[in-house]
From TrEMBL:
MF GO annotations: electron transfer activity; heme binding; metal ion binding
Residues passing through the membrane, by range: 6-23, 35-57
Hydrolase as UniProt keyword: no
Pfam families reported in the protein's UniProt record: Cytochrome_CBB3
Protein's UniProt name: Cytochrome c domain-containing protein
Residues annotated as domain Cytochrome c: 136-223
Classification via InterPro entries: Cyt_c-like_dom, Cyt_c-like_dom_sf
Amino acid sequence: MGGVLVRPVILTVCIYLFLKFIVPNLPHSAPLPSSLIFLYLMLTTAGIVIFATLSGASKDAFFGPILRFLTGEGGGALSSARYLVLALFPLLVGWQTYGSTASSDAPPGENRTIHPAPPGEYTGLSNPVPKTLDNINYGKGLYASRCSPCHGNFDGKGFAAAGFTPPPANFKDPTTIAMLQESYLFWRIKKGGVGLPVEGMPWKTAMPRWELEMSDEDIWKVIMGEYDGAGQKPRTWDESE
């Protein structure tokens, strides 16, 4: 009966390792947020439980060892393992809680630049799209469908924002897009987190590579919509000098 539980455990561990370590190293991919990994593991667990309860025999074979372990039936080594787990579980929860909340004075693995310099071909680009009300509203519509789940109402507080480290940018903050030129935003939106150079590590963002889904013109319109919605203006060459 132990084998009935071993296979689901191995499957769950393999899925976790795949999502945590394999997916971020795939081409054009980025690290998955912990909340998304947790969601996939919960879906895997639900699928295992559903499969294990398709018949009465499979249900007894799956839940039998779990119930005997929790109730202490069988005695001997099983009972000792039960007490060991009951003692270690709160210690592990406490250790995880402390590790996630305690501050660290350890420096990052590499020096990080919050706004790394874009490649040369993106330096000094001008927005070729006319800044008309129609184009701005069109850009806001694209923003609402593509960007707002993470960046919210231009404040970085979208419903998915809590799952990301670093968090999505707050465009209303004067230290974000108000300090940047439109050409910088065009590069970051087009290439996403995977396009960051080494000085943007080790905290690469999970922003998608939007050039795979949006045209250059649409990206420029999104940029206009972001500045207008956030109440900011792009930095110009004169101001930067």
